[in-house]
Amino acid sequence: MIVAFSVAPLGTGESVTPAVARAVKVVRESGLPNETGPMFTTVEGEWDEVMDVVRRAVEAAKEGAPRVTFTLKADIREGVTDALHGKVEAVERELDNL
What we know:
This protein is α+β, with helices and mostly antiparallel strands and 98 residues long. The protein has one domain (2-96): Alpha-Beta Plaits (2-Layer Sandwich), CATH 3.30.70. The chain contains 3 helices and 4 strands; from the N terminus they run βαββαβα. The chain has helices at residues 17-29, 47-62, 83-96, and strands at 2-10, 34-36, 41-44, 67-75. Strands 2-3-1-4 form a 4-stranded antiparallel β-sheet, with helices on one face. The chain is globular and about 50 Å long. The two termini are 29 Å apart. The relative contact order is 0.26.
């Protein structure tokens, strides 16, 4: 599965950068394939391992905050590996044909 998620604390001031960095650190240290973008962090793996990483990342972002917001989008497709890159490559191939 691929999960794209965004997490941000509330009640900690204007900048969420420190909290987001803590969440991204959890994802990167997980060893799962991942990418960080300007709005979402994407992680790929099996259901239980991905959801555990997301839970820990949300908890890391919530440190010191009275509240946290969290958005998640998942693509669950059996038998597919490296979809994190394969989906982008498929679009690039299609663009080459336009």
